[in-house]
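User: Could you go from structure to sequence for me? I need the amino acid at each position, not a summary. Structure tokens:
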């Protein structure tokens, strides 16, 4: 578990807090109406602990060039509605308008700045903590704040100025969302109840293979069950012809990472053959109809869109008997009702299991929430890429920043902030 300060370690009453959040949300491309406000709701615990501080929020929405790249005005209004408190907004990030607004704040006030990705340095500047600290954004905002709170777990794998640039400029601590994410994920990865199942699927096959590699080689997972594109790849590597159309689809999706991913997957199949469970059947989309096929009946030129019924039953039973389940990615093309069976039953089994079930971010988290299963899971992550990188054993820049800042300010923090 990472070592850093959290909101429970400090008294921020009367202090100016610079709060970085990830409330990047799906919007209707035409009306900009929020289609999902879960990420905004996720920062409420942090906001509730900062009611006696001046809170200046740094946030982003999408990135330049995308249809949903827009201002954070709507986010400020949505946050105000959820909190039942006023949230001011300024069309500026660190210019004169923003600084004047911040200077006029009283304890308990909340001010959201403009989309931080409208700042060129936020998008383009890369480098170490010192390099990022030299950006105008960090230099200017460091001068008006007492502390930096990072609650943007979904951006924890990004080394940008607004995420890690304040490491050496301000004491940096974790918000409630960040702390909860790291505690729950660490619980599953560091000391999982046995047996521990890694259930890897979805279309981001390279990410899932990296996670599987880390979990098997470090002895975190006792078993690996594969679904979706990951299953198709491993079935092919095991010696079964899945059909040229399915092979070509995997090659196209993996792109430049094809060779590396295949080599890693082959290594897993060789070194952990006794721990890897391949499907015994798959469902193909034959002219719009679901056709379940035993692995022995492959190849087929129709696309493979789901686990077969027998494989779904086997996976569900394993999940219900597990001590820990770490799941990432759907089992198939769940958007099509005929091919949602594997995904739906897999999630239902997690909800019914007495084990600690961790749901990776992205599509998996969205599906869990849409089906109203969140309360029945051990943890549903808000971070897609960040969650995957954490589970793959990679160093997350935001976590390194929190740890580095805690060490850097270990003496001066007691002078600037009441502990």
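Assistant: Here is the amino acid at each position, in order:
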């Amino acid at each position: 578990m990472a070592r850093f300060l959290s909101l429970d370690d400090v008294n921020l009453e009367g202090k100016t807090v610079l709060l970085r959040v990830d409330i990047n949300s799906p919007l209707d491309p035409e009306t900009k109406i929020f289609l999902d406000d879960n990420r905004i709701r996720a920062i409420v615990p942090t906001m509730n602990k900062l009611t006696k501080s001046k809170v200046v929020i740094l946030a982003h929405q999408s990135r330049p060039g995308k249809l949903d790249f827009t201002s954070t005005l709507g986010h400020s209004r949505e946050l105000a509605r959820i909190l039942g408190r006023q949230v001011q907004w300024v069309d500026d990030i660190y210019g004169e308008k923003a600084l004047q607004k911040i200077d006029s704040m009283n304890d308990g006030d909340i001010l959201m700045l403009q989309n931080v990705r409208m700042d060129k340095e936020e998008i383009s500047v890369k480098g170490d903590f010192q390099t990022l600290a030299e950006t105008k954004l960090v230099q200017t905002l460091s001068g008006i704040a007492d502390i930096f709170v990072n609650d943007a777990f979904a951006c924890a794998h990004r080394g940008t100025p607004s995420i890690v640039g304040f490491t050496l400029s301000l004491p940096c601590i974790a918000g409630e969302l960040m702390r909860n994410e790291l505690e729950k994920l660490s619980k599953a990865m560091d000391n999982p109840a046995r047996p521990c199942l890694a259930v890897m699927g979805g279309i981001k096959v390279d990410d899932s293979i990296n996670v599987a590699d880390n979990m098997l080689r470090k002895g975190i997972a006792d078993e690996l069950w594969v679904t979706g594109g990951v299953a198709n790849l491993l079935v092919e590597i095991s010696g079964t012809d899945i059909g040229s159309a399915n092979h070509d689809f995997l090659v196209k999706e993996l792109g430049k990472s094809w060779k590396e991913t295949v080599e890693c997957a082959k290594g897993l199949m060789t070194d952990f053959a006794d721990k890897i469970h391949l499907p015994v059947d798959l469902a193909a989309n034959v002219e719009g109809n679901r056709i379940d096929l035993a692995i022995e009946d492959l190849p087929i030129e129709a696309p493979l869109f789901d686990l077969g019924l027998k494989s779904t039953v086997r996976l569900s039973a394993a999940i219900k008997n597990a001590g820990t389940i770490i799941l990432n990615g759907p089992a198939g093309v769940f958007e099509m009702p005929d091919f949602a069976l594997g995904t739906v039953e897999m999630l239902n089994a997690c909800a019914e299991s007495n084990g600690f079930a961790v749901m990776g971010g992205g599509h998996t988290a969205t599906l869990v929430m849409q089906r109203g299963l969140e309360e029945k899971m051990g943890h549903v992550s808000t971070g897609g890429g960040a969650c995957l990188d954490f589970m793959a054993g990679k160093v997350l820049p935001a976590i390194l920043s929190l740890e580095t800042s805690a060490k850097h300010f270990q003496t001066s923090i007691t002078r600037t902030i009441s502990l």
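One structural detail worth keeping in mind: The radius of gyration is 23 Å.
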